[in-house]
Amino acid sequence: MHCEITKTPQWRAGPMGPKTLCNACGVRHKSGRLFPEYRPAASPTFCPAVHSNSHKKVLEMRCKDSFESDSAELIPNTNVLALEYNI
């Protein structure tokens, strides 16, 4: 189960077979919008710092995370500069 919720109006099919996702996660899975950052607000694993129940906010979180990881890769190589001044 994605969100570890135990009570739902309807269990839906997910990547692990039939009746493995709650109603909210199942609807998102079927539409291709089920991301690890998504959790229904009623989920016992919902943490506002890591999760959201809004698709727009989930996309913002994913963009922010990818931007932070990209910026970490853009650290300039100072060894090249040192070699230019030694010539």
From TrEMBL:
Family assignment from sequence similarity: Belongs to the type IV zinc-finger family. Class A subfamily.
SUPFAM superfamilies in the cross-refs: Glucocorticoid receptor-like (DNA-binding domain)
This protein's record includes keyword Transmembrane: no
Every GATA-type domain range: 1-30
The keyword Transmembrane helix is assigned to this record: no
One GO term (biological process): regulation of DNA-templated transcription
InterPro entries: GATA_TF, Znf_GATA, Znf_NHR/GATA
UniProt xrefs under Pfam families: GATA (PF00320)
Keywords recorded for this protein, A-Z: Activator, DNA-binding, Metal-binding, Nucleus, Transcription, Transcription regulation, Zinc, Zinc-finger
Gene3D superfamilies associated with the record: Erythroid Transcription Factor GATA-1, subunit A (3.30.50.10)
A GO term, aspect molecular function: zinc ion binding
Protein name listed in UniProt: GATA-type domain-containing protein
